[in-house]
Write a structure and sequence with these properties.
- The protein has a 4-stranded antiparallel beta sheet, with no helix packed on it. A 3-stranded antiparallel beta sheet has the order 6-3-9, with no helix packed on it.
- The protein starts with a helix and ends with a strand.
- The protein is of the alpha+beta class.
- The longest helix has 22 residues.
Length: about 160
């Protein structure tokens, strides 16, 4: 009977009922919040660096043009492939051996061509890209070049250096 009387009093005043329900909700929410546990963990995270691959130099002879004359300079074409998943910047192209021609000994014996090492370059090469670069004035033909060298395509062994 006492419970019934208490409910009748509370129900009679709606404002008191709303206040009682709000208070009960706060108590329940506080109980849930204080009833949770805070947990932490420690350990390691991991990352791995890619293994880079060397750049590849390709045959660029088909893209050359006849711009060499005895006593003059001409352009050198270098085709480079970057097999890496990141871009690089070519910083130098340097000679690594004897220059030969497609004409053979008749031209090569006169040592008609020299290559000027290219340093301080900033040639961008994208990830997975192949690009043919023109090195302006990098080849020089001697004044003593023989007639057999006319129309010859010269092969210049080079090495490229690049940075990421």
């Amino acid at each position: 009977m006492r419970v019934r009387t208490s409910l009748a009093i509370v129900a009679a005043d709606r404002r008191k009922l709303l206040l009682a329900l709000s208070a009960a909700s706060i108590v329940i929410a506080a109980g849930v919040t204080f009833g949770s546990w805070a947990v932490t963990g420690t350990g390691n995270g991991y990352s791995k660096a890619v293994t880079s691959s060397n750049l590849t130099l390709n045959d660029a002879s088909a893209s050359t043009v006849g711009d060499l004359v005895p006593g003059g300079t001409g352009n050198v074409k270098v085709s480079v492939t970057n097999p890496n998943p990141f871009a690089v910047t070519i910083t130098s192209v340097t000679s690594t051996g004897s220059i030969t021609s497609d004409v053979g000994a008749a031209c090569d014996s006169s040592s008609p061509l020299s290559f000027t090492d290219q340093t301080g370059l900033s040639l961008a090469l994208g990830a997975g890209a192949t690009t043919t670069f023109t090195l302006s004035g990098a080849a020089a033909m001697s004044v003593g070049a023989v007639t057999a060298c006319q129309g010859a395509v010269f092969t210049i062994p080079v090495s490229v250096a690049a940075t990421t």
